Amino acid sequence: MILSDLGARVIKIEPPGGDPLRHSNAIMFAAMNRGKESIVLDLKTDIDRDLLCQLAVDSDIVLEGSRPGVAKRLGADYDTLSDVNPGIVYCSISGFGQSGPWKNRPGHDLNYLALSGYLSMQASIQGGRPSPPAVLISDLTSGLYAAISVLAAMTARSTTERGAFIDLSMTDSVISLMGLEISGTDQDEAVKKPNVTFIPTYGVFTCADGKWLSLGIVHEDHFWNRFCAVAGLVDLADWDFEKRLAQPDQVLAALEERIATKIADEWERLLLDQDVPVAVIRDFAEIFDQSQFQFRGMFHEIDGNRFVAQPMKFSTASLAPSSGPPSIDEHREAIISSIDAS
Q: What's the rounded Cα separation, in Å, for the pair 98 and 331?
């Protein structure tokens, strides 16, 4: 989808009957497949395997997401397709990668988060109980790495004239997100608290109206001094970062007690007026009306579907979503015609 938004022609190869996600979760399917073309190929037949190879001749990039060995059995693997197009860039995304003792192990996003250590780390700030995150972290992260990787390989191809095979593990993708935490440990020491969440002035607090306020003060004494001036915490105003870290319980108790005295919107107004990093926690129903997101064109309605735009804005072109998801096999004639034309 990212590549499509960036201007690539993306052809989605679907099995007979279509992508199962079409039938199990139409909203998710639409969100993940906007801007793509669709053709159904039965790769268990010789005729459709040959059709795939013909498609590969003029293709730059292939992305596949099956377990190791499946693409080879279907004649859709890198060796097969690079025989007809040596310059092809081929990225295989799988749960654990194409190698290692876990390569054939089944799994979904939650399992990859569990095995990577992410859920354990998250539990350290959730009272000790791990729980599924609200977004599919490994799915999304591996998609981002796939986009980065294939574009890097395309850039390299412009000088080497060679394609590449990219082996991308979803579990490894999650581990890569925790480089900051992992780098601060050794083999005998577990990650006890992630990044800055151990800092008492960096967290969420309940306000008088029951809403939550996020306070984002890390090491910056100037932010702390301004907060204390607004909140009336005179006794703590001269505490520098080291002292705040040394007495977290006292700082946290003072924050919880004081923030509970005003409603969330009032705190946000008062603190932003003094340039303190703070924000009321908003739900989905509220974000669509936020002027910032509207100004940057983050949401688009197409054929009854709401889509989120890419976060980067190019000076040379619009990356706004331009079309919704394809119907099953919608572009067969156009795709076949393009093969015949080449």
A: 32
Q: What is the DSSP string of 246-310?
A: HSHHHHHHHHHHHHTTS-HHHHHHHHHHTT--EEEPP-HHHHTT-HHHHHTT-EEEETTEEEEPP
All structural domains of the chain: 2-180+300-341 (3.40.50.10540), 202-287 (3.30.1540.10)
Mean pLDDT of the chain: 94
* Contact by Cβ (8 Å): 56, 65: no
Strands 278-280 and 164-169 come out as unpaired
C-alpha–C-alpha distance, residues 39 and 16, integer Å: 10
pTM beyond 0.85:
yes
- 132: number of Cβ within 10 Å: 13
Residue-wise pLDDT for 108-165, tens only, equals 999 999 999 999 888 887 778 899 999 999 999 999 999 999 999 999 999 999 999 9
Question: Tokens standing for 183?
Answer: 């780098």
Which of 49, 62, 53 is closest to 11 using CA atoms? 62
List the structure tokens of 113: 């988060």
Query: Rounded to 5, what percent of the chain is helix, strand, coil?
Result: 45, 15, 45
For residue 275, pLDDT over 90 is answered with: yes
CB 223 within 8 A of CB 217: yes
User: Sorting pLDDT into bands at 50, 70 and 90, what band is 183?
Assistant: confident
For the chain, how many helices (H) and strands (E)? 18, 10
Buried b (16+ CB within 10 A) or exposed e, 37-54: bbbbbebeeeebbebbbb
What does the pLDDT look like over 60-77, one tens digit per residue? 999 999 999 999 999 999
Q: Which residues contact 46 (CB under 8 A, 6 or more apart)?
A: none
SS3 188: coil
Please give the Cα distance from 266 to 173 (Å, whole number): 40
Which amino acid is it at 206? T
Q: What are phi and psi of 10, to 5 degrees?
A: -115, 120
Nearest-angstrom CA–CA distance, 302 and 320: 11
Quickly state the pLDDT bin for 186 (edges 50, 70, 90). Answer: low
